[in-house]
Automatic annotation (TrEMBL):
It comes from the Bacteria. Gene3D superfamilies: alpha/beta hydrolase (3.40.50.1820). Residues 1-31 form the signal peptide. InterPro entries: AB_hydrolase_fold, CarbesteraseB, Type-B_Carboxylest/Lipase. It holds the Pfam family COesterase. The keyword Ribosomal protein does not apply. This is Carboxylesterase/lipase family protein. It comes from Georgenia daeguensis. Keywords: Signal. Residues 43-188, 194-504 form the Carboxylesterase type B domain.
């Protein structure tokens, strides 16, 4: 017999904010015998499109660079993915596929990756998968990166696969203008694009996944409507010489990759990748969720305690029109609050006094982490999402907040008095082999989190018999805090009270 890896591989979808998500998609992978047989796990497995050969190391198997769609080049640029051409013989799956075209962080001054033949995925399995009876959960990771940068291969999934006993699929997807450009001529030809909160709301995604984990990107975030996105598309088209009155779609398909990426950078607003309009995403996900018109699957949703320490140093201040200085003074901090909140600034200052933090800049980051900007990763925006997702009768939602302020930072700002804490992205090394090695205390937290995440993928519930109970979200205290022992540990926290969410909601009232 031979075991076939399903085309969509899966059971759970996972994703991290400003672009990433984890879904349990389609059906589970089933265990069984392979052609190679024997005591050692086989390195050749059979997919619907052909056989692939991977590698075996440290208790897991890895298959890399497997194409899941035809190369989106030439006339297929901007079009929905076409089926991959099946192959004869055994395809080598020991090397990574090409990254999708993208600029180089952090300054985006260069565009080193321009290969559009990039639609590939990587599969990590426990070594003992074959010969086992029954189904194995499959988790699909949609990487983050503002829908502009990143690859699936950045995320070494052996921790999830081996310790959680699941199959993990990491994917590349078209980024920037090649994946998210909306322009009137293209829209007329191509239809839609979309990621986890959007998938929950998308009618065309129903039945493709069984659970959803949305990380650090609130499902109440509002996306651009089609006219707004198409106006940005016209700006991109003009920047690459595809002016109105020509065959704009054909011209855009012939434009240079680097030109397109640079034009997209000039037109892009943060979070402005997804578009509401068309059959894939006909309404705002927030509106669909509020109306109970979303996929009826269990959802895990959460953020990090100090999300916006990552974004605050580069945020444009209302009071000055420039990013905050590392030596922001208490007076400048107060002036910024006044510029943002007017006659209610004193109320904000009373809740976030500068002298309660290591520096005024860190106080400003606390304000932004609770309320934004950017709002889509803020704590209170996530609380809004928990309420909306759990409102329909019997909807099962599990909320969390990652709170380890000793975590390795995704971005390290050398500012005095600016501890970055549990900033955006700092949760990733607790699920993937990524970044600096974890301390023993962090390893213990990581082990618990991996088991929570993979139990959710398997059953739709994250609860474990030998870990703190995680209650489904019904009220404010049902957010599971995830911290190292000695700093709060693992257990329920009242996140809305801690982040003054009722107060921030009152400021938003007309």
């Amino acid at each position: 017999m031979r075991r076939s890896l399903p085309r969509l591989f899966g059971r759970a979808l996972l994703g991290l904010g400003l672009g990433a998500a984890l879904l349990a998609a389609g059906g589970p992978a089933s265990a069984g015998a392979d052609d190679d047989g024997g005591a050692e796990p086989p390195l050749v497995v059979h997919t619907e499109d052909g056989a692939v050969r991977g590698t075996m190391e440290e208790g897991h198997r890895l298959f890399q660079g497997i194409p899941f769609a035809a190369p989106p080049v030439g006339n297929l640029r901007f079009r929905p993915p076409a089926p991959v051409e099946p192959w004869e013989g055994v395809r080598d799956a020991t090397e990574l596929g090409s990254p999708c075209p993208q600029p180089q962080p952090p300054d985006f001054a260069t565009v080193p990756w321009v290969d559009e033949d990039c639609l590939s995925l990587n599969v990590t399995t426990p070594a003992g998968l074959d010969g086992r009876r029954g189904d194995v959960p499959v988790m699909v990771w949609i990487h983050g990166g503002f829908f502009l940068v990143g690859t699936g291969s950045q995320y070494d999934a052996r921790k999830l696969a081996v310790d959680g006993d699941v199959v993990v699929v990491t994917i590349n997807y078209r980024l920037g203008p090649l994946g998210f450009l909306a322009q009137r001529d293209l829209s007329a030809q191509n239809g839609d694009v979309a990621s986890v909160c959007a998938q929950l709301a998308s009618p065309t995604a129903r039945g493709l996944f069984d659970r959803a984990i949305a990380m650090s990107f609130s499902c109440t975030q509002r996306y651009d409507d089609l006219p707004t996105a198409e106006a940005r598309g016209d700006q991109v088209a003009a920047a690459v010489g595809c002016a109105a009155g020509t065959d704009v779609a054909a011209c855009l398909r012939q434009a240079g990759v680097e030109e397109l990426v640079r034009a997209w950078l000039g037109a892009l607003s943060l979070g402005g990748a997804f578009v509401v309009g068309g059959s894939a995403l006909p309404v705002q996900p927030a509106d669909a969720i509020a109306a109970g018109e979303r996929a009826r699957v269990p959802v895990m949703h959460g953020n990090n305690r100090d999300e916006n320490t990552y974004f605050t140093p580069t945020e444009t201040l209302v009071s000055t029109g420039a990013p905050p200085s590392p030596t922001l003074t208490a007076e400048e901090y107060a002036a910024e609050l006044t510029a943002r909140y007017g006659d209610r600034a004193e109320e904000v200052l009373a809740r976030y006094p500068a002298d309660a933090y290591p520096s005024p800049l860190r106080a400003l980051a606390a304000v932004f982490s609770d309320a934004g900007p950017p709002a889509m990763v803020s704590t209170c925006a996530h609380v809004d999402a928990y309420e909306a997702l759990s409102a329909p009768r019997r909807a099962r939602v599990y909320a969390y907040q990652f709170r380890d302020r000793t975590a390795f930072p995704l971005a390290d700002f050398p500012f005095p008095g600016y501890p970055e804490g549990a900033q955006h992205g700092s949760v990733l090394p607790y699920l993937f082999e990524l970044g600096a090695p974890l301390t023993p205390e962090q390893q213990e937290l990581s082990a618990t989190m991996v088991r929570y995440w993979t139990a959710f993928a398997a059953t739709g519930r994250p609860n474990l018999h030998d870990a703190p109970a995680w209650h489904r979200y019904r009220d404010d205290e049902d957010v599971q805090g995830l911290d190292v022992e000695g700093s709060g540990g693992v257990g329920a926290v009242d996140v809305p009270a801690e982040s003054h969410c009722d107060f921030w909601a009152s400021l938003a009232q007309p």
